[in-house]
Amino acid sequence: MNLFADIRATVLTALTEMQAEGTLPGGLDFAAVAVEPPRDAAHGDMATNAAMVLAKPAGQPPRAIADALAAKLLADPRITAADVAGPGFLNLRLAADIWQGVIKAALTMSTDFGRADLGKGRSVNVEFVSANPTGPMHVGHVRGAVVGDALANLLAFAGWDVTREYYINDGGAQVDVLARSAFERYREAHGLEPEIREGLYPGDYLVPVGEALKDTYGDTLLDRPEQDWLADVREFATQRMMQMIREDLASLGVSMDLYSSEKALYGTGKIEAAIQTLKDMDLIYEGVLEPPKGKEPEDWEPREQTLFRSTAHGDDVDRPVQKSDGSWTYFAPDIAYHFDKVQRGYDQLIDIFGADHGGYVKRMKAAVSALSGGRVPLDIKLVQLVKLWKNGEPFKMSKRAGTFVTLRDVVELAGTDVTRFIMLTRKNDVALDFDFDKVLEQSKDNPVFYVQYANARVNSILRKAVENGVDVSDATLAAADLSKLDHVAEIAVAKKLAEWPRLVEIAARGNEPHRVAFYLYELASDLHGLWNRGNDDVSLRFLQDDTATSQAKIALVRAVGVVICSGLGILGVTPVEEMR
Questions:
Q1: How do residues 545-562 score in pLDDT, each as one tens digit?
Q2: At residue 306, what are phi and psi to the nearest 5 degrees?
């Protein structure tokens, strides 16, 4: 049930009738016609921009269109008022029983209330985290992991068939550095002094890897040259790091459907096949790039390279895929990896990247556009940095990691649910401050507490009702006389519930899970406000002497609980039933 979509359909029907009657010309595009909550609730329940967006193509004054549309809409018994405002906005008011019907729908549909068919079963691949397998995950990965996982949940709720994927960056020089670092810990396990020289990974997390290498290989590697042990140690250490990463993700409540390896692209012909596909499209050529912006001519060495004509698909400049020495650039395996995803038949691709990958966005979109023939859209979300604070100061780095705060540090201090919710309280492309003191305090300023407290209040009301002999099963509450909910404060909460299905669609269309966190805070605020008004107005209290009235009021509260639990489920947060 999406009440806003239903009223929009009514608006479109009225506009079509106006065309048939000659009030509007034919051939108009109604795609931009919207029905949404008004900016000021005092203006009405819903507003439509129909007259404003159709005035120019129709060649008519917007107010004339709005007046004619208002007359049409007033014939609908759900609409009690249609007022033209300003240059031609149309504000609508709906009958109280429409809002009361939203409560019944939430109770009847339960966890399916707000669920959308936006995806229509189409497939979407959400690739996120994809950290180098060189150590434990750090706080930057936390945010990317939460954003990616919550987005996957959101898209599934909106009707998409979702695959969560982790791309293991195990094909570059960093895994050789990992192997050399692990080898020093292997030497340490044999009682030798490790040489953690500059450029190696210093964290203590590699100590157990060194011990495991000793258990597996004994002392057989100690006196052998690097070329003899590097490949074996690299594979061993990478597997151990991926096991650690999987455990880190599990502590955050994240599990992947698929792990793909960059290394598996080399020596298999997959990179060559992807580049050949682009070459067959006349998108690969030999050329010399212009100097990068900011480079002086003497700092630039022009050289012929194999280039991808990415400017043909929206990029600013063409991009090298093969160096003059014949080796692949970092971009080449990424092209092959995304070509593999295209070939797997996904209808949409989404990548969650760190903020430092901003320069990759246009080139990667260009590659997917070319390789899919424009069929598969790629959306890339950049996740900005997280700044950690504790006791009013920046939170110190982890000794175990050596150079950064780990995911485990954050989860152990704040908890999984708090961590996940707070990571979604800002849009992904905005920097986020994570203050351990504030995220754990019990106040309105702490959004996760405020939302969880609302859910706890819902359950408290239900428990008290049961203690008083009131039947609060969903079936009974859905059948209650909801016409008893006629106070403006109660209707306001019902109106907020009606926004949930619309919010799900908007958030899913924009791949923006943070919108769910924002909405839940607003819904919780409305419930707390209604609770507080009951302190002064006895008629607004949820438990009344009359059972029928109590059940109507509790139906509203229970509907709020249904939506909060659904929203928290999308965020990957466990609802609490009681605050301690």
A1: 999 999 999 999 999 999
A2: -85, 120
